[in-house]
Design brief:
CATH class of one domain: Mainly Alpha
Strand content: under 5%
CATH topology of one domain: Tetracycline Repressor, domain 2
Strand order of the largest sheet: 1-2
CATH architecture of one domain: Orthogonal Bundle
Order of helices and strands: EEHHHHH
Radius of gyration: 24 Å
Amino acid sequence: MRGLPIDTERNGSFCYSASVPSQTAVSPVRGRPRQERADTAIAAALRALLVEVGYSRLTMEAVATRAGVGKATLYRRYASKVELVFANAIHSSTLRSVDTGSLRGDLVLLSERIVADLGPTGGGRSGPRTAG
């Protein structure tokens, strides 16, 4: 352990401390650039399958097959089914500029938009279901 400073102040034992060099170099981007049409196809396939089979029976393989992309393409973008659904719900263009004047009103409107956006054509449901 040559070149490492020794700290003898901690409980009388030897502790070695070394500084880790900072990672300032940026690695080059590898592989092909992402295709926007794949993202569009994945979102459309997700919406259709959520309506047809529901969340519990939705699989990454079914989304990939319906979208016409490989599972690797899907997993490069989303680590799990939860992440796939969440990302497509939250990053929807319909969620921008929500201001009803109250937090409750904003949350209700956001919920309605998410449910509608995940419908069959991006607007196929009338709103969130309520118990009762």
